């Protein structure tokens, strides 16, 4: 049976009984102490899940490592011996900080009701107490930004676990107490973490999970009336509908979001990624031209970045990212001239971007080459092989789907060696465990 120690009770009081919540605060305290004492070794300290379980259960023969003891003493304000001493009764439990009663109350006074001055002050302190300070908020925000920055290089497989842990930590903190400003920030961060997980779920072909996460992000952002995060969450929801083949839902979701804030920079993504591509799949050429034009107008009005911003970014779409989405919409609508002309405009920026964007633009151009009056099958299949090579062993839903669509489109030329070579490379690429998982999930 776990021993009841000061450490165990303090964890309950601070609402950090979950390992992820504790280790985040331990590492932050270690960095602070390292700066304070000029000992960089302290800043590298962490705690394993196994060590944490032993500390919580009181299963220690002695005390933790001296470095860990220094950090714990800094965190909790008492010695390591006191922290891990077994408590025998409630009388020796950790007591809350003493309440300082205003001097005026020391003099005799007449109270006209049963209110206690001490209770009033103690309650105010309880309501304004927080288990997350500004440094915690900054840490969580930088962790989300780190996932965004790494996503175009690493993909969902290595980052989903980190995103899940981050979301769990934020939700754990939300189970505790914070003043309104801090709670607002935690809601915003929780919406961002849920939205990132929704985006990742789309890229591995799990559309039910994607919708659940995106809806969570939408609900949390609405609860704090954060319009920008709400628009981003709606864009992620539309993104999931599109790859699930629910094109009308994708367009309707994005259109409703744009109506709420038509001048927002977030509307660029909603128009280019949400509306234009869905309208292209539905064969609405005029609609594609209209919404792409509006997206470019907003891009100029907000002076967005010129390049391909990270696909999963919380920031507004960059100019080249918008045009890359327009290329996909033009392909679906059969607008070959616009595909080739737009792809040429962003060629240099695409070549300097992430491998997925390079793959996707090549697949779009290859599809357009097969739609020409004089199809260039050899060049289309070469681009298809290059796209598979760029993506390598990190398949995502969009590349998986478009590479298969290209092969289906080329069936009329199956007698050509180039088509056979592309088909064989596609077969090998699709045999990877991650690609096979998409098939088993029904992402066909």
In short:
The chain is mainly α and 444 residues long. It has helices spanning 6-14, 19-37, 49-57, 66-76, 80-83, 117-128, 134-154, 156-174, 180-203, 207-223, 227-243, 247-260, 266-281, 285-302, 319-332, 336-345, 347-351, 355-371, 377-391, 397-409, 417-430, 433-440.
Largest sheet: none
Which series of helices and strands comes N to C? HHHHHHHHHHHHHHHHHHHHHH
Instruction: Give the rounded overall mean pLDDT.
Output: 86
Describe the global form. elongated
Uncertain runs are 90-114
Number of strands: 0
- Per DSSP, the total helix count is 22
Supply the helix-strand structural class. Answer: mainly alpha
Radius of gyration, in Å, reads 28 Å
List keywords for this structure.
444 residues, elongated
Question: Could you please describe the fold and organization of this structure?
Answer:
- This protein has 444 residues and is an all-alpha fold.
- 69% of the residues lie in helices and 0% in strands.
- The two termini are 51 Å apart.
- It contains 22 helices and no strands.
- It is elongated and about 85 Å long.
- α9 (180-203) runs antiparallel to α10 (207-223), α9 (180-203) runs parallel beside α11 and α14 runs antiparallel to α15.
- The model is unreliable at 90-114 (pLDDT under 50).
């Amino acid at each position: 049976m776990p021993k009841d120690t000061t450490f165990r009770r303090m964890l309950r009081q601070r609402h950090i009984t979950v390992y992820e919540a504790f280790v985040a605060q331990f590492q932050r305290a270690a960095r602070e102490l390292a700066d304070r004492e000029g000992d960089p070794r302290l800043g590298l300290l962490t705690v394993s899940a196994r060590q944490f379980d032993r500390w919580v259960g009181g299963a220690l023969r002695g005390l933790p490592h001296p470095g860990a003891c220094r950090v714990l003493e800094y965190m909790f304000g008492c010695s390591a011996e006191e922290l891990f001493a077994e408590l025998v009764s409630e009388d020796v439990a950790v007591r809350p900080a003493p309440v300082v009663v205003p001097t005026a109350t020391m003099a005799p006074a007449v109270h006209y009701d049963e209110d206690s001055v001490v209770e009033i002050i103690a309650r105010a302190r309880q309501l304004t107490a927080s288990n997350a300070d500004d440094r915690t908020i900054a840490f969580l925000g930088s962790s989300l930004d780190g996932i965004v920055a790494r996503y175009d290089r690493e993909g969902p497989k290595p980052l989903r676990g980190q995103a899940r842990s981050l979301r769990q930590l934020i939700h754990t903190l939300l189970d505790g107490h914070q003043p309104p400003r801090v709670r607002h920030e935690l809601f915003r961060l929780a919406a961002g973490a849920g939205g990132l997980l929704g985006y990742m779920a789309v890229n591995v072909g799990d559309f039910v999970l994607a919708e659940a996460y995106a809806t969570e992000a939408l609900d949390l952002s609405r609860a704090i009336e954060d319009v920008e995060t709400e628009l981003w969450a709606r864009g992620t929801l539309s993104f999931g509908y599109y790859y699930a083949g629910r094109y009308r839902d994708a367009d309707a979701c994005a259109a409703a979001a744009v109506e709420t804030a038509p001048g927002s920079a977030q509307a660029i993504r909603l128009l280019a990624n949400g509306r234009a591509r869905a309208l292209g799949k539905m064969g609405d050429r005029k609609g594609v031209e209209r919404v792409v034009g509006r997206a470019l107008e907003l891009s100029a009005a907000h002076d967005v970045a010129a390049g391909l911003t990270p696909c999963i970014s919380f920031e507004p779409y960059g100019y080249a990212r918008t045009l890359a989405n327009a290329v996909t919409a033009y392909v679906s609508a059969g607008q070959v001239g616009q595909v080739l002309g737009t792809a040429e405009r962003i060629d240099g920026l695409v070549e300097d971007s992430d491998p997925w964007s390079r793959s996707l633009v090549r697949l779009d151009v290859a599809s357009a080459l097969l739609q020409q009056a004089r199809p260039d099958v050899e060049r289309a299949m070469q681009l298809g092989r290059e796209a598979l090579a760029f993506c390598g062993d990190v398949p995502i839903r969009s590349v998986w789907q478009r590479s298969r669509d290209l092969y289906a489109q080329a069936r009329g030329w199956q007698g050509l060696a180039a088509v056979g070579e592309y088909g064989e490379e596609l077969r090998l690429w699709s045999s990877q465990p991650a690609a096979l998982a998409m098939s088993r999930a029904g992402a066909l």
